[in-house]
Fold:
Amino acid sequence: MTDFMTSLKPAWHLEKIAKLRAGENIVPTHLQLIISDLCNQDCHFCAYRSSVGFSVENFPEDGRKNPIRFMPTDKCREILADYAELGGRAVEFTGGGEPTVHRDHLEIIGFAQQLGLQTGLVTNGVRLRDHAVFHALDWLRISLDAGTEATYRLVRKSDAWPIVMRNLKLAAGLRKPKVGVGFVVTRENSHEIEQACRVVRDAGIPYIRISAMFSTLGASYYEGIEVRVPEVEGLQIVNCFPARIGDLTQGPPDYDFCGYQQFVLYIGGDQNIYTCCTNAYTTAGKIGDLKEQRFKDWLASYDRRQWDPRSCHHCQFNDKNRIINYLLAPEPEHVNFV
Structure:
């Protein structure tokens, strides 16, 4: 796995590992902040809208599978200010829905940057433009999931392919962020991985991440599908697909401590806190409510060590959790024989 997506990152936060060893909760290094649950596309594999998605239990609102629900801007600023005050380091703006649909997304992301927080954005790229806030991102990933306009329309239920093709080139010219493209393999697009790679390379984007659909169907969804991830000259291909299939095949985790949620927390557009994106908008995954409470007060009062990950249907963070648990385990025999 490439360095910027390696599962070994927890080893760079040994001061936090030491606190976990001492039985303390830690301030997350990374928040996933969902400012919009509304999306301007309708991907059939969406974890929040698909009938087989993990996060469909409490995501709909008044019967709408695409709820018009935005986190209030003042609440976003409050959460970000609390997080920065506590020593937080990074914020990822993702879905839920499409972050750039929020009318104040530039203000919110810009406020995080003013606080000195590192910022990342996952977007479908439709509303991307030449703006200082996007130039100041640390990373940007555009979800594409197709290699041709016809398949894009089929998979994402959108006619925005020409706009996204233009905005891929715009993204490639942004000053600061590391820019990449996301490709979730489905039955409809598995034959277009190489085409997508070439589209991305030709737009000047340096990398593409290949991943799998996480759903209640598990690995059985991919039975009978040949998934071939090619090498394409001039493009870095981050192939997460085999690891995610392994996670889906395994089912529930085989360890009893979720270190991942100590390092990363997910705050939904409904202003609830969830253990992770996989458990988002589920009753079991909800661990906090910020509608009447500040983030810093919740963080000081809730013991995240009590969560038992063996209750999870699947986990896409097994590799990270295993590394964290290894770092927390008693010293192994012959530890100095590296």
